[in-house]
Write a structure and sequence with these properties.
Number of helices: 9
Radius of gyration: 18 Å
Number of strands: 9
Shape: globular
Strand content: 15-25%
Bound molecules: adenosine-5'-diphosphate, magnesium ion
Strand order of the largest sheet: 5-6-7-3-8-9
Oligomer: single chain
Largest sheet: 6 strands, mixed
Length: 258
């Protein structure tokens, strides 16, 4: 693990119109990190990822990605948005979907070069999905689709992988497979994911950013003991039972641990 910052946000505020989504955000992702962004629905997790990628611009503060502006370095990041629309009625094969990850322009089809096809095949192999390459995307199971979409994000041969809720709507066994895959990919690249699953995430990641308008970083060992309850409330006590009280302010403080 090196100390090279891959993503840095400094004093960032972001509003949608008059509504604040993120306030006074300071956070850094380092080279080799496996970061999970957790927090309640509407807390600003997807917005934070989009700011890191330069898909949104902050009204205040600065975002740096791979040593420059996100706009310049975005193509070196593999991104899986939260609501990726692949029209299931359009007869795309797995190969077609992964090749889309090679394009930075607006057209979802070629022309592709031999290097594009090699990169797509390598990405599918890295995700244990090369056997699926000729299958219609629409015919795949949920877990297979997620593998292929991760391969699509990998096809641009990124330095950083950013995935927004890659395990949402998968059953637990399949979620574990996806986390194992991401852990393996993290051996060669920085990985940032948004996840609701605090308990599973804590076994895999080395940093946790808790997002609820403010962003605070927590040690992996702190979850699920307190953060799970703070974010998900008594209903979120899947793994935690706690009787002592935490104030909400705790999350808003400068609570960093290295
Ligand atoms: P999360 O990913 O944690 O669920 P989001 O980053 O999607 O949260 O959203 C943060 C807040 O910003 C929410 O209150 C949401 O309703 C609002 N929001 C998100 N996208 C938009 C948008 N395009 N226009 C207006 N408000 C938005
Ligand atoms: Mg979201």
């Amino acid at each position: 693990m090196s100390d090279n910052p891959v993503v840095t946000l400094r004093n960032v505020d972001f509003n949608y119109g008059a509504t604040p989504a993120l306030k006074n955000v300071d956070c850094t992702v380092h080279d080799g990190d496996f970061v999970s962004i957790i927090g309640p629905n509407g807390g600003g997790k997807s917005t934070l990822l989009r700011l890191m990628l330069g898909l949104e611009k902050p009204q205040r503060g600065e975002v740096r990605l791979l040593g420059t502006s996100p706009r310049r370095s975005r193509l070196r990041v593999g991104y899986m948005p939260q609501h990726l629309q692949i029209d299931a009625s359009f007869p795309m094969t797995v190969d077609d979907v992964v090749l889309m990850g090679r394009l930075s322009g607006p057209l979802p089809w070629g022309p592709y070069r031999a290097s594009d096809r090699t990169a797509a095949a390598d990405a599918l192999s890295a995700c244990d999905a090369i056997d699926l390459r000729d299958r219609p995307f629409a015919s795949l199971s949920g877990g297979q689709r997620q593998r292929v979409l991760i391969a699509r994000a990998l096809a641009c041969e990124p330095a950083v992988l950013m995935l927004d809720e890659p395990t949402a709507s998968l059953d637990p066994a399949v979620q574990d497979e996806v986390y194992a895959l991401l852990k393996r990919l993290n051996e060669t690249m920085t990985v940032v994911i948004v996840s609701h699953d605090v308990s599973v995430v804590s076994q895999h990641v080395n940093r946790v950013f808790c997002v609820n308008i403010h962003v605070s970083e927590h040690c992996v060992t702190e979850i699920p003991d307190e953060i799970s309850r703070l974010f998900y409330g008594p209903a979120g006590l899947r793994l935690v039972r706690h009787d002592h009280d935490h104030t909400h302010d705790h999350l808003h403080g400068a609570d960093h641990c290295e």
